[in-house]
Design goal:
The protein has 300 residues and is an alpha/beta fold. It folds into three domains: 5-59, Beta Barrel (OB fold (Dihydrolipoamide Acetyltransferase, E2P)), CATH 2.40.50.140; 65-227, P-loop containing nucleotide triphosphate hydrolases (Rossmann fold, 3-Layer(aba) Sandwich); 241-299, Ribonucleotide Reductase Protein R1, domain 1. Helix content is 23%, strand content 25%. The protein contains nine helices and 13 strands. It has helices spanning 99-108, 123-126, 134-137, 139-144, 161-167, 182-189, 241-246, 272-278, 284-299; strands at 5-12, 16-21, 26-30, 43-48, 53-59, 65-69, 75-80, 84-90, 113-119, 148-151, 171-176, 215-218, 224-227. A hairpin with a 4-residue loop joins strand 4 (43-48) and strand 5 (53-59). The structure holds guanosine-5'-triphosphate, magnesium ion (MG) and zinc ion. Guanosine-5'-triphosphate binds next to helix 6.
Amino acid sequence: MSDSLEGRVLVSYGSHGIVELADGTRLDCAYRRQVGRPVCGDHVAVAMSGTHQGVVEDIRTRRNEFARADRRQRRQVIAANLDQVLIVVAARPAPSQDLLERYLVAVHSLGIQPVIVLNKVDLETSEPAAPASPALLRLPAYIQLGYTVLRTSCKGAPGTDALRAAVRDRTSILVGQSGVGKSSLVQRLLPDQDIQTGELSRVTGKGTHTTTTTILYRLPDGGHLIDSPGVWEFGLWKLDDPQLARGFPEFTPWLGQCKFGDCRHASEPGCAIKAAVEADDIRGWRYRSYLRLLQQNEAV
Ligand SMILES: Nc1nc2c(ncn2[C@@H]2O[C@H](COP(=O)(O)OP(=O)(O)OP(=O)(O)O)[C@@H](O)[C@H]2O)c(=O)[nH]1
Ligand SMILES: [Mg+2]
Ligand SMILES: [Zn+2]
């Protein structure tokens, strides 16, 4: 069709979504079965069907897609065309075991760089006696492994300047457990928007799943920021075992050097990864994380 327009999906519901055109116009767009269901961040071609209405005619080829497992362990794509994934963690709610590593593997499998955001650092001064979780105690080790860790607070110093700089001119998604402050960070970067945030549960100390849909926001300084619903346990759909090993970048120099080409680096003889662990070239706790994820992979 000659008069189709290019736009980007801000939010996607079951049978329709909100698409923003280059000039900022927003259209409520219907989907068509033969075109498929766009997700947040998709670039689409739309045809106008009313003043504020349109129809999605094509989903442009995705550069990448971020997925997680739904309740039934099925792969569910929540956003597309990302430049970076911001994994948000906080002292409260404490990160669940392996959550950070599961996210890191998922992001590496997209071929893009994960960034770890430690939010609520104000708690370090207001609650200095609070015990830190193992995942947070390991943040310095993640920095040594080459990951970027940004420290932020929505309630005091150091604020969110580091995050503001990191998201400029790029498409980024905030992911993490419910209640770590993803929406609060979006609110800080977009003070004019009215973004819903929620208290932690008094009973469990966990987030209360305030955000229920994945939404893309246009940043005033350029770039796009996507807020996503929190998870308690980040469901990992089954990755290929080689993909899992590639999610641990420090394994790379030894990949392909094992005795068996299809080595899963668990109990196989002549494993170069295991030898590297024994020689202390790979950290033991990282290797143990890998083995746990491998095991979880089998359970999926
Ligand atoms: N002390 C402190 N509290 C914060 C900070 N950021 C957010 N919070 C609080 O943490 C709670 C949860 O914040 P949200 O922004 O709703 O968290 P979320 O990650 O979006 O949660 P879901 O939408 O459920 O996934 C709210 O009570 C916020 O006020 C922070 O930097 N410091
Ligand atoms: Mg939220
Ligand atoms: Zn091996």
